[in-house]
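Input set for joint prediction.
Command: fold jointly, output tokens.
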Amino acid sequence: MPVPLQGVSVASTESRSPVVSMRGVTKRYGERRAVDGLDLDVPEGQCFGLLGPNGAGKTTTLRMIYGASQPSAGAVSVFGLEVARSAREVRARLGVTLQDNVLIETATARENMQIFGRHYLLDADTIARRADTLVEFLQLGSHADMIVRRLSGGFKRRLAIALSLMNMPELLILDEPTTGLDPNVRQGLWSRVRALRASGTTVLITTHYMDEAERLCDRVVIMARGRAIADDAPAALIATHLAREAIEFDCDEAEERRFLASLGNGVPHLRAGNRTMAFADDASRLQDALRDLDGGDRRPIVLRPANLEDVFLSLSGTRLDGEG
Amino acid sequence: MDLSFRHAWSVWRRNATLYRRTWKLTILPNFFEPVFYLTAIGIGVGAYISDIGGMRYIEFLTPGMLAVAAMHGASFEVTYNVYVRIHFEKAYDGMLTTPVGPDDILVGEVLWSMTRSLFYGGGFFIVAMLFGLVPFPGGLAALVVIPLAGLLFAAIGFAFTIRIPTIDVFSFYFTLFLTPLFLFSDVFFPIGERLPGAWLIVAEALPLLHPVRLARSAFQGEWGWIALWDAGYILVVSAVLLEFARRGVRKRLMS
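tokens >
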């Protein structure tokens, strides 16, 4: 289908100053530091992922980016504007889909778009035109004229995203966009995010689903306890921290030690419960080594590509447990 | 202070758009409540009262009830409805992702509450006219009292609602605050003739007495210096509470 949304012109994508820039940003709530000395640059025209477990400080970071919250220390600028001083101007140029849908349940989807469009001071004609475009873009169809209360979770989420696109933002912020949705709905939303990115919109997405980040994002920052613990393209993170492939199998700790020793102890590995994951660019080598040790094919071994979740476990594991 | 009237207006229009769906449900109670009061208290109880300061009891009661209607119209809006928008609908969190700012939200909501007070107070005014209780044209001046009372009670209610921790606290607001105001603010009897002196000072400090006295001045066509004190009280107290509410909005929504 055609992509009706045009975020930024081709000419402006050539300038490479970051859309979002955070320097030494800290947010304190009493003694707790929700965000702790964060540096972040979101490049223009990319899909940028902010990953981390619940409580890592992702949502707090977003709130400071669109000016709903002020940092306790540090500087946040968006589109080259200082957010603390120019929140209204910054928010006129970005769109935010919050983690909890903020829809008016007693109104129709189209009325929601109308009411939201007015917050951007759009006139009635523009609102009607954009609502039509967005109904098509997000495939709301006849659901656009239904009362929101009667819509399914997937349609509500699409409407929430439609609202944050009413002003044709240059930067779209999505906070946990697919949490709690069916797999087919998630796929549908991902395709819409890709379409927006292809049309030049910068997308900043938070998620605790590593597969979502791997499929959508050009670049990711992994957050834990309010800090950025890694920052790179997903494939590069996997290559740098682990290796291309992994094997997974159940074993006790003594067996794991023997297995790692048989490979010369140089193999990156993770342990979760009684399951061991070991990484190599060609993991069939690891599988062969384990079968040699077992004296045959004696246990189920999963051979798979390494993924961001492995990177996340390895990073947060070492940092949080203080092992390395 | 960073107020954009156009953005505040978009907040007002949000409420107006949604109200269009339900106005038919609220307009009937709106209309009947004053009819019940005027007949039961004004005519029913009034039958046992020969006269009150040279007028029929129902004539004494009507301007007071006009101010009460305006008070109720604004109060329901800035208590339960605003609480639901903050905590259940998260409407303001949504607005704060758009160019609408916290001051715009406050002003939009207060203007909308004043609008609701106009519906309530205006409804009562029409009923009172049908009862033949509004002196013409002097009584028309009482129409100005409706938005003034609306402003005052919107400011009080919003400053309260933005800071309370749970919705249950509203029972205190209505039962221990609005109800005594309703009963002891010159609406049903002249408090100056019945309350001991110390209590008169308390009543003077409380908000409802002032719009009631202004409305009565308009109905009787007798304006004194005290009307300046009443209008001044309403404007100054509203301004102080709106500033208090303004800080509350930032604290609640933008921490």
